[in-house]
Amino acid sequence: IPAACGNSFVIVGGGIAGVTCVEQLSSQIPSADVALITAGPHIKAVANYKQVSRALEEFDVEERPSSVLEEKFPNLTVIHSPVKSLDTESHSLETTDGQVFGYEKLCICSGGRPKLLTQDNPYVLGIRDTDSAQEFQKRLSKARRIVVVGNGGIALELVYEVEGCEVIWAVKDKAIGNTFFDAGAAQFLIPSLEASKPEVAAPCKRPRYTTEDRASGSALGPDWHEGIVLRGAEQVSRRVSVEYHCEVEKIFTSEELLNSPVKSDCGKNFPSVSIGSWPVCILLTNGKTFGCDFVVSATGVVPNTEPFLHGNTFAVADDGGLRVDDHMRTSESDVYAAGDVCTACWEHSPLWQQMRLWTQARQMGWYAGRCMAAHVLSEKIELDFCFELFSHITKFFNYKVVLLGKFNGQGLGSEHELLVRCTKGQEYVKVVLSNGRMVGAVLIGETDLEETFENLILNQMDLTPYGEDLLNPNIDIEDYFD
Ligand code: FAD
Fold first, then answer.
1. Sheet of strand 33-38: strand arrangement
2. ipTM tops 0.95
C-alpha cells in the first residue's frame, strides 16, 4: 500500500485480535485497502463461534494459511514479515525485509511473549507458541524432574497434564491458581492433582487448537497441549509437590554451582542430590533448593511493544501494554491496539476487568475494527456490551470452569460477602455479593448455573431476601427467578 493511498488500514499481528480486526474492517468497508502484516507464516482464525449466553462465548481456534483470508476479502493483502519500526508522524512502518507501508489507520495486535525468569538460560523454558510447546515436549521426554514456576492458567494446565516426571510447582501465593480462583476453589481442585488422571478424558467442550502445522508466532490458545503427549522419562503417573508462597531467588547451572560459594546451601537443603547430577538447580525464597532437568517459566506475558515504541511517544501502562481508550486508540493519533499487547485504560464497568485471554483478544480485535471503521466514516460508536461483564469459560483439571464478573472480589476490598457451596469431587460454587447484589461467581463442575447467575449479576437485583437460599441445592434457583 503506497503511503499516499487513502482509506488504507494496516493491522499488525496474525493472532486472534489482528485477524478478527481485519475481518471486521474488511466486511464493514469492503472497498477499503487492508494490509495484515504478521511475523509468522500462518494466521489464527476463530471457528464455530457460539454465544453460550448473553456474555459467555465459546469458539474453536484454527491455524490457517493466510490465503484463506485473502480469498475471502479481495482488498486484503497479507505480508509475512515482522515489523521493525514505526514512524507515527509520517504514518508509516517498516518490516525487517525492508518494505515500507503507509497507513491511514493502524492497529497493533502483536500479542505478548512469556515473561522469562532469566534471559538466555538454556535450562529455562517459556511456553508461548507451537514451537516452544514442541521444544518443551522434547525436553520433557528425557526429564526426571522439572520445576514449574507460576500460578496462572498455563502453569495449572501443565502440572495437571505432565506425566512420567516429577513436578515441583513453585507458586507465589498461598493457594494454587490464584489468578483464577480463591483458596477454597484451590482446595477443591487439589485432590485431582493427587489422583491419577481419568483413563478417558471427558469430552472437551471448549475451544480446540490444532497443532499440526508449524508455529506462527501467535500465542497458543486453549487446549494447546491436546495432541501433544506431555510425558517424562519416568514410569510414574503424576507426581506434583507444591511449594507455596515462594518465588525464585536464583537459578544455577551445575557448572555455576561447582564454582560458587552458594554451593553448600544447595547441597544442605537438598541432600539427596549431589550437585553435579542435575543440570540446573533452583533456589526458592522459602530457602529450599531443588535440582531439576529444566525450569518452566509460566509467570505471565510481556506485551510485544518494542518495535513500535522507538521514536514515538506511546503511553505505556505499568504492565507494559500500550494504553488504549474506550475506542481502542493508543496515545498516538490513528494508532489503535487490541489483544494481549494493549492495556484497557478506560474507566471499566464495575463488573469487568482485563485478562489476557483468548476471548478478550477476539472482542478487542472486533471492537477495534468497528471503531476504526466508525472513525473513518465519521460515525458514532459506543463501548461494546462485551466489556460490561467479565466472563470466561475454560477447563481446569478436567472440570468445566466458568468465571463471571468480580469472581475473586477483585477491587472490592472487605466490602463483600461470599457464599460457597461445595460437593467434593463434583462441584464448587462461589458467589460474590456486594451490598446484597451479586457481582461475581466461580462455577466449577457441571453446575448449570451460569445463565441464571449471569442474569442476576447483570440486573443487580437485591438478593438480601433470599439469603443463603441462593445456593440451597434443594431449591431450583432457575425457577425461583423466572
Ligand atoms: P497473539 O495470539 O500472540 O498474536 C500476535 C501476533 O502478532 C502473532 O501472529 C505474531 O506473529 C505477530 N507479531 C508479533 N510481533 C510482531 C511484529 N513485530 N511484526 C509483525 N507481527 C508480529 N487464553 C484463553 O482464553 N484460554 C486458554 O486456555 C489459554 N491458554 C493459553 C496457553 C498458552 C500456552 C498461552 C501462551 C496462552 C494461552 N492463552 C489462553 C492466552 C491467549 O493465547 C492469548 O490471550 C491470545 O492468543 C492473545 O491474542 P493476540 O491476537 O492478542 O496475540
1. 76-80, 33-38, 8-12, 105-108, 335-337
2. yes
